[in-house]
Structures are given as structure tokens and as C-alpha cells.
Design brief:
Helix content: 40-55%
Largest sheet: 6 strands, mixed
Strand order of the largest sheet: 7-8-1-10-11-9
Shape: globular
């Protein structure tokens, strides 16, 4: 749902930087011989040559489009070079592209607050940089203007008289009689041009950019002139930009809301919204959405650049179109394990490099039912507290899937084990980790995080007893014990540090747990626990453990511990006697 945010200040300078066919550029950097050739990157899928996910501008000239598959692209452009996305665990491995995107972000962040919006796009708040330039070295005082800045497209700048475009841009940037907002925008043009050239120098990647006074307008402008160009939107040109802009081009108006505006209100362009008073839009779409529509028609958007260099979430997913649909629980479990393994690796890397921890695990799926009139019913998304360690994530994701499947199909007739087809199919499957926050400094605080996430696991879901009741409904006889959703057994009340270690490093026996617990309790002069590798604390060592499997179940281990305590207590009493 759109959120109406009024402009806090109309003198901001916001840029949206969008990499040019980024996946292709990453592959061309790895294989320089591809530069200048029609090239496309194809997704892992052998059907008809795979789906195109990025197309170079050289290939686009021949009519190659992203909607095509590899074989179609070759028919249109026989000389096209098709590069397959790297594959890991039977699915596309995008880590190389993510890392390349991080290179770009680190450069852009040098001049202002930076928000990474996706692998290949970034928002920048350059207000402070522009204010500093205007105060210390204003554009009108510059003897020369960088050539890249002179190539800028400035909306509303007429060039119909045939005069030199670069000279007109120079005059606009160096105007002495411009208002403060346009002077700041001129500074933003210079800063963005400099940053784009720095990105090219350090990474070999080209990018395009939009510069305006808010995120909405900057995003619209960045795609207007590509590749390797930039477009600025002065205040005086906002109305002209929006008047003829189809509403589907506006973010959040490409779905049901945009369709309703077209059908119910007769709105086809953003400018058409100007005819309706704010109260009318609020009456039809609610106060918040109505106000948001009223604002965007006037180019008003107060959304702040969040200052985020790292992603808000991590996810791993795969689609299974047509005959590839997953139709058995065992097939779903296999792919969930693959997806969870990738997700766990990324979480461990984030924890190790960035000292961040995720709190929520979510499963999403798309499904169909072959013999049900309610085939449009959506597969419900399910979430639970996230536990670190590949095996734990796999276990919890599978439990979430089972819970969602019961809700999707209904309690009766659902098999949650085995390889038999039960009349349903999964066409898309993904797992994600969200609510990622920095961990406080000090190992003790890290331990508290993991202790908390362990003890509260699945606290928001149904109790184990109720899940057993649900499982009885899975067969008319209620006797199939393997249909139960097996959530982890409740933890017994170990001493806090021992219990945390036992949960996060499950391969350690009781003696090793106590040894590690003792090492955790050693304090430094500052009162903090000595530093221990985040990988150990997170339980990520589970992926490389050489330790033996536990000899006893958790109940048996607890019984032995308690029995030992009782023996010690009785011995102590005898000595006292």
C-alpha cells in the first residue's frame, strides 16, 4: 500500500543510479572479448535455450528482447553471444553480480547517503554535497565544466533553435540568477557526473542516473536516457514530465490500483489525477492512498534515502514452470534443502563480514490444484523466528511449507510425506531472511541474541499439541504419525550459556559445551567477554563439522545431566552428615 509522505524540504538533491544491462557488463568484464558484441545473459534453464535476463544494447538493435528465450534470440540475431548465469545447487548463482554491485555502492557512498535498492540500482542523497559545493565552489565560478556533465539531459531545456546542446547545458548549470533549488540541482549534476566517471574508472561499468529533488522523480528520470547518460528534472519541468506519463510507468501503479484508476476513474496519465480534489481520491481509495495519489500528481514525494548499503533481507528462490512443477512433498523438500543451504551461506557471510543477524524466516510459494474449482487460491506465506545453522533452517522451512500446504489444500487428503502425487503442484518456491539488524558489540550481547531466538522459536505459531491435533486430521483415521508437523522439541532449562552453546553448536558433547561455556565467561578488563568468531557463535560451523553425532537425544542428555546433579547433591549431604 502506498504511503503518503509530504516533502520535508523542497531543496533536496536526490539521485537514482541505475547500472546499464548490469548482468551483461559483469560477464563482459570477465570476458573482455564480448565487449561491443550483441550479448545476452540467460537464466539456468535448458528449455528453448533459457530465459534472457539481460540484453546488451548491441543485441537490442537487432530486436532481441528480454521476454525472449535463447533460441528466439538466435533466430532474431544469429551472431548473439549467450552467456549462462553461473549455477549452484541446480539454480542460478547470483553472488558474482551481488559482489559487483557492492563495488559500485562503495564508490557512490563516498559523496552522500546511499540506499542500495537492488543488485543494480542505488539512491543517493547528495543534498549536503551540493550545499557544500554551492558554498565553497559554486558552478558559476568554475572555469571549466566536466565534459560528462555537459552531456546531461535537462528536462525543459530547449534546443530547438539548433544551438549547441552542450553550450546550453553549460549556461543552465552556471546561471547566476537561478533560484536556490536549481543551483543545488546544478551542483548535483556535477557531482553525479563525477561519480559515474569514477565508477567507470574503478569497475569498468557504465551507469545512467536521474537527478531531481525526490526519489520518485529521480527514478523516473534515470531510465529516460540510457545507456551511460544522466537526466535532471528542474522544478519547472515536473508538471510537463507527469502530465503525459502513463500511470503504469509510475511505481506502485502497475497493478490493481492502476487498473482501478483507469477503469473506475478514467485516469490514463499521472496528469489526469490533477482533476480530482484530494477529498474525492480519499473517499474512493482511503485517506492514506488518496493523499498519496494527490501528491504524486504534483510531483510530491517525501520518502527519504534510508542510508542503507546492505540489503534489508536475503532470499533464495526458484521457479518450476509447466511440467517442471513439484508435485510431491519429497521433491519440495529436496529443493527447500538446496535453497536453505544457499540462504544459510549468505546469512553466515553477512554475520561474519557485516556483524548483522536476521530474525525472521519466511517461506513463499505459488501453487495450483489440479482438481479443485478454487484453483486461484493463493498458497499462504508462512514465517517463524529464524534459527542459524543450515539444518535448522531446512527443518523450519519444511515445517512452514507443511503448515502452508495444509491451509492451501485443507486438512483432509494431504500427504506430508512420501513421493505420491496428491493433486497439487508447486510452481515457485522461495525462502527469505528478514528483520536484519546489527548485533551489539561484545560477545555477551551476541550470545543473548541467539539465546533469545532459540527460546522463542515458533512462539508465534501454534503449540505443539495443537499441531498434533491438526496432524490427526490429515488422514480420516488420524493414525498416520508421519503426517505430524514435527517442530523442534521444547528446550529444557539449561544454564543460559551452556544452553545457548548447545543450541548453536550442536556437534559438541557436554564436556566440550562446558569448556566453551567457561571460555565465554572469561571477562576482559572492560567487562566484556573475550571475542569469539561470529561464525562459531552463529552455529554456522555446522556446515563444516567433523564432530561425531550426539549419542543421546536431548531428553536423554538432560536426564543424564540432572541425574549427575542429584548424585552430587546426595554425596554432599552424606559428607555433611
Amino acid at each position: 500500500m502506498p504511503v503518503a509522505k509530504p516533502e520535508s524540504c523542497d531543496s533536496r538533491v536526490i539521485a537514482h543510479v541505475d547500472m546499464d544491462c548490469f548482468y551483461v557488463q559483469v560477464e563482459q568484464r570477465k570476458q573482455p572479448q564480448l565487449r561491443g558484441l550483441p550479448t545476452a545473459v540467460v537464466q539456468y534453464n535448458e528449455w528453448k535455450g533459457g530465459a534472457l535476463i539481460a540484453v546488451s544494447y548491441e543485441a537490442r538493435k537487432f530486436g532481441v528482447k528480454r521476454s525472449m528465450r535463447g533460441e528466439e534470440a538466435k533466430e532474431v540475431c544469429p551472431q548473439i553471444q549467450l552467456v549462462q548465469v553461473p549455477v549452484a545447487r541446480g539454480k542460478a548463482d547470483l553472488n558474482g553480480y551481488r559482489n559487483a554491485g557492492s563495488e559500485v555502492v562503495s564508490i557512490l557512498a563516498r559523496r552522500g547517503r546511499c540506499e542500495r535498492a537492488s543488485i543494480d540500482e542505488v539512491y543517493l542523497d547528495l543534498t549536503n554535497a551540493a550545499e557544500t559545493m554551492l558554498a565553497e565552489n559554486p558552478p558559476q565560478s568554475l572555469e571549466t565544466i566536466d565534459e560528462e556533465a555537459l552531456k546531461s539531459h535537462i528536462l525543459g531545456l530547449n534546443n530547438e533553435d539548433g544551438s549547441d546542446l552542450k553550450e546550453n547545458v553549460r549556461k543552465w548549470i552556471t546561471r547566476c540568477n537561478a533560484d536556490h533549488r536549481d543551483k543545488l540541482l546544478a551542483c548535483g549534476i556535477l557531482v553525479v557526473a563525477e561519480l559515474r566517471m569514477q565508477v567507470l574508472k574503478e569497475t569498468d561499468f557504465t551507469c545512467s542516473a536521474g537527478i531531481a529533488h525526490n526519489k520518485m522523480l529521480a527514478k523516473l528520470a534515470s531510465g529516460m536516457n540510457k545507456p551511460a547518460q544522466q537526466t535532471a528534472v528542474p522544478f519547472s519541468s515536473v508538471e510537463g514530465l507527469l502530465n503525459t506519463l502513463p500511470i503504469q510507468k509510475m511505481k506502485q501503479l502497475g497493478g490493481k490500483l492502476g487498473t482501478s484508476l483507469q477503469i473506475d476513474m478514467g485516469v490514463n496519465t499521472v496528469g489526469d489525477l490533477l482533476q480530482f480534489p484530494e477529498e474525492k481520491l480519499q473517499e474512493r481509495y482511503g485517506i492514506n492512498t488518496g493523499t498519496w495519489l494527490w501528491n504524486i500528481a504534483r510531483g510530491i514525494n517525501g520518502e527519504a534515502v534510508e542510508g542503507r548499503l546492505l540489503p534489508k533481507s536475503h532470499g533464495s528462490g526458484k521457479t518450476f514452470p509447466g511440467p517442471r512443477a513439484l508435485k510431491t512433498v519429497s521433491a519440495v523438500k529436496h529443493w527447500l534443502n538446496q535453497l536453505c543451504e544457499e540462504l544459510s551461506e549468505r546469512l553466515c557471510s553477512d554475520l561474519d563480514k557485516n556483524k548483522r543477524i536476521a530474525h525472521t524466516l519466511t517461506l513463499h510459494a505459488r501453487a495450483f490444484k489440479s482438481s479443485d474449482s478454487d484453483s486461484e487460491k493463493k498458497f499462504p506465506s508462512k514465517s517463524c523466528p529464524l534459527r542459524y545453522g543450515t539444518t535448522k533452517i531446512q527443518e523450519d522451512a519444511f515445517n512452514l511449507f507443511q503448515a502452508g500446504l495444509r491451509e492451501y489444500i485443507g486438512f483432509y487428503g494431504v500427504k506430508t510425506q512420501g513421493t505420491d502425487y496428491s493433486g497439487w503442484g508447486i510452481t515457485s518456491l522461495s525462502v527469505s531472511a528478514s528483520k536484519i539488524v546489527p548485533i551489539p558489540s561484545g560477545t555477551c550481547s551476541i550470545a543473548k541474541y541467539f539465546l533469545g531466538q532459540s527460546s522463542s522459536h515458533f512462539s508465534s505459531m501454534q503449540s505443539k499439541a495443537s499441531l498434533k491435533t491438526d496432524a490427526m486430521h490429515l488422514s480420516p483415521q488420524g493414525s498416520e504419525s508421519d503426517s505430524e508437523v514435527n517442530l523442534p522439541e521444547p528446550k529444557f532449562d539449561f544454564p543460559a550459556e551452556e544452553r545457548w552453546i548447545e543450541d548453536t553448536v550442536p556437534g559438541l558433547d557436554l564436556r566440550e559445551q562446558k569448556d566453551l561455556s567457561c571460555s565465554l565467561s572469561k571477562k576482559t578488563q572492560d567487562g566484556f567477554t573475550q571475542d569469539i568468531s561470529p561464525l562459531l557463535l552463529s552455529g554456522c560451523l555446522e556446515q563444516n563439522q567433523n564432530k561425531q553425532q550426539r549419542e543421546f537425544s536431548e531428553d536423554e542428555s538432560w536426564f543424564k545431566l540432572e541425574n549427575g546433579k542429584q548424585k552430587g547433591k546426595r554425596l554432599k549431604e552424606k559428607v555433611q552428615l
